[in-house]
Write a structure and sequence with these properties.
Elements: H1 2-43, E1 62-71, E2 80-90, E3 95-100, E4 104-107, E5 113-115, H2 118-136, E6 142-147, H3 148-158, E7 163-167, E8 182-186, H4 188-196, H5 204-222, H6 225-229, H7 231-238, E9 242-244, H8 248-262, E10 267-272, E11 278-283, E12 287-292, H9 294-304
Parallel strand pairs: 1-6, 3-10, 4-12
Antiparallel strand pairs: 1-2, 2-3, 4-5, 6-9, 7-8, 11-12
Helix pairs in contact: 1-7, 3-4, 4-5
Length: 306
């Protein structure tokens, strides 16, 4: 008799616990969706942007995303990519970031050899994807493009007090802001200027380092306790500023998995071309370029993103 009562109490407890878990999960999902929609409403931007279909092959156990910074300020002219990166997140919850220097001299399908950022001007993000696949053998499934103005507004939305950056030298030439050395909180416009600065001894080489540093700082901002709690809202705020072929559910899945399992792991970085595998040259039609050792750069990149 006592055993029967114990079994009834146990079943009653399990039933109540199950009901509690269902309510908790439902409430969490509802709150997350509310936060996401609130983020979109706060941005007050037009989200009706064209989505480009990628004719790529899905790579098992990893996600490769082409990240592009777009300079679309010149009305009536073709936009160009100011930064080209490949972001990979794999089933080991590792994050890898590759920066491809825009002056890399490569073969562009349907065109002669040119700087890699010309592929975007010639045929958009799909031609750029094809160019990367042809020259480096890397399949890319997704893309995300953000223009300069969108970047500024996005940063000001997700970090009203600014993003913490250690500015290593005075910067003001051709970036629209004046920055002084030291650790400081940078607004969206200042952070963009910092990432774009190239007028020093190493030019684009140092700029690539700064761009990777900026992405790492943004990651740190988003992954604070406050940032994690407001992740759905942050995603909603970001969405109008980004043109991508990733669905909302795909963004939520990758973002949530990264927050839960990959947030404590450092981002591994690589620059293409790698040291010792390029030669600076100048051509009449393309200007100053980086002539690549094609096989060496391809080998290093494939090993890094294996």
């Amino acid at each position: 008799m006592r055993q029967l009562k114990r079994n009834k109490k146990k079943k009653s407890l399990l039933f109540k616990l199950s009901i509690f878990l269902v309510i908790l999960i439902s409430s969490t999902l509802c709150f997350g969706f509310y936060q996401y929609k609130k983020g979109i409403q706060l941005s007050e931007k037009n989200t009706n942007r064209q989505t480009i279909k990628f004719n790529s092959t899905r790579v098992p156990n990893k996600t490769n995303i082409l990240l592009l910074g777009e300079d679309a300020r010149k009305k009536g002219g073709s936009s160009r990519t100011d930064s080209i990166m490949i972001l990979q997140y794999n089933n080991k919850h590792e994050t890898k970031l590759v920066s491809i220097m825009r002056d890399s001299y490569v073969s562009i399908p349907g065109y002669e050899k040119h700087k890699i950022n010309a592929a975007f001007s010639f045929g958009g993000v799909e031609l750029l994807r094809q160019t990367i696949q042809q020259n480096f053998g890397i399949e890319i499934e997704y893309y995300a493009i953000i223009d300069f103005k969108g970047f500024e507004e996005m940063i000001d939305e997700i970090a009203p007090n600014g993003i913490t950056i250690n500015v290593e030298k005075p910067m003001e030439s051709h970036i629209g802001v004046s920055l002084q050395p030291g650790v400081q909180q940078l607004t969206g416009k200042e952070l963009l200027g910092y990432a774009r600065f190239r007028h020093d001894a190493k030019g684009d080489f140092d700029r690539v380092i700064r761009q990777q540093k900026v992405l790492d700082a943004i990651k740190s901002q988003v992954l604070t306790i406050k940032g994690i709690a407001s992740f759905p809202k942050t995603l909603g705020v970001m969405q109008p500023y980004i043109q991508t072929n990733m669905s909302t559910m795909e963004l939520l899945k990758i973002g949530s998995d990264f927050i839960v399992k990959g947030k404590d792991k450092d981002v591994e970085t690589l620059r293409i071309p790698v040291d010792g595998a390029f030669t600076p040259k100048k051509y009449e039609k393309a200007g100053e370029v980086l002539e690549l050792d094609a096989e060496k750069n391809k080998e290093v990149l494939q090993i890094f993103l294996k």
